[in-house]
Amino acid sequence: MSKISIISPSFNQAAYVTRMTASVSCQTYVDYEHLVLDPGSTDGTLEHLREYAAVNPNVVLILEPDRGQIDAINKGLARATGSIRHSCAAASASFATDQLLMPDPLPRLSTNHV
């Protein structure tokens, strides 16, 4: 079983972040980390992310300034420890906070990883 890193850049995504974190939390695959990067949201996103990280030991919350989504993705990739990086958005390197993870794709990613 390979560890999977899920990278989610976020900034002022309060309208979406609850559904996104729920879609990751319901995964049955256990060997993953979810890196969520936020440069300082002011719309309630940070409060939700802190609650999410407090109850999910697989979450790595990175709260620091960035130069936009691609910079956040690159920071996440630099800190990721998984041998597989889940890809869903810009530049095939992230899982944005306005996207949902379908039920249990992580075992398929792990099985199909070469």
Mean pLDDT: 82
Number of domains: 1
Percentage beta strand: 15-25%
User: What pattern of helices and strands is seen along the backbone?
Assistant: EHEHEHEH
User: In CATH, what is the homologous superfamily?
Assistant: Spore Coat Polysaccharide Biosynthesis Protein SpsA, Chain A
Features:
single chain; 114 residues; alpha/beta; Spore Coat Polysaccharide Biosynthesis Protein SpsA, Chain A; 4-stranded parallel sheet; 4 strands; 36% helix; globular
What does it look like?
It is a single chain. With 114 residues, the chain is of the alpha/beta class. It has one domain: Spore Coat Polysaccharide Biosynthesis Protein SpsA, Chain A, CATH 3.90.550.10. It is built from 4 helices and 4 strands, in the order βαβαβαβα. A 4-stranded parallel beta sheet has the order 3-2-1-4, sandwiched between helices. Helix 1 links the parallel strand 1 (4-9) and strand 2. Helix 1 runs parallel beside helix 2 (45-55). Residues 87-94 have low confidence and may be disordered.
